[in-house]
Amino acid sequence: MRQNKCKICRRLGTKLFLKGERCLSAKCSLTKKPYVPGEKKKRRARQLSEYGKELKEKQKMKNWYNLRERQFRKYVDTILNSRGKVEDAGTLLIIALETRLDNVVFRMGFSPSRVLARQMVSHGHFLVNGKPVNIPSYKVRKNDVISLKPGSAKKKLFHNVSESLKKQTPPAWLEVNISKAEGKVLRDPSFEEATPPAEVSSIFEFYSR
User: Fold this and answer.
1) pTM score of the predicted model
2) How far is CA 53 from CA 49, 90, 99, 101, 184, in A?
3) How confident is the model over 72-102, as pLDDT tens digits?
4) How far is CA 70 from CA 65, 75, 127, in A?
5) C-beta of residue 59 within 8 angstroms of C-beta of residue 203
6) In order of start, what are the domains of the chain with their CATH numbers?
């Protein structure tokens, strides 16, 4: 069952930008109703247990990247299985999530939200190094070039693509060519550049139970 995206943000008490530009406007539900859904007014926050805190951090990150539980857990479990072999598990998780093709399409500015970016990729609107890729979880690598399919540029969805790209300031690990409607991966993203909305260490603790 699909959850109301605005209620997800209100329940977690964090703006996760699940509705793109609407989240930046006065129409944002979290701005208008900064309390948990179902409550008439904002009440004193209940004291969460350690498990509750970890669950909340996990939910923030999972929804931030628009992933299902099974998908998100797979990423975390892969990192957990490497513990002892890696220096910074948090950064590895961020790299894995940020280099998903749907996230890169969002970061470049083709889409105002990761939700729409996932749909765009699934519908086959993008090329990676000149080849069509319709898998949102596809991992991009250094020097990969992501571009809009020539035929897709004519579709109504991308009529104002240049303006969309101009609105977005891409992270330093991505280089965007607005005139060509394409971007290049320069390097792996850093933890700081991703600005995750959650405490990553709590997420690892949650799945380690």
Assistant:
1) 0.80
2) 6, 18, 27, 30, 37
3) 999 999 999 987 666 789 999 999 999 999 9
4) 13, 9, 27
5) no
6) 1-47 (1.10.1050.10), 51-99+196-209 (1.10.1050), 101-185 (3.10.290.10)
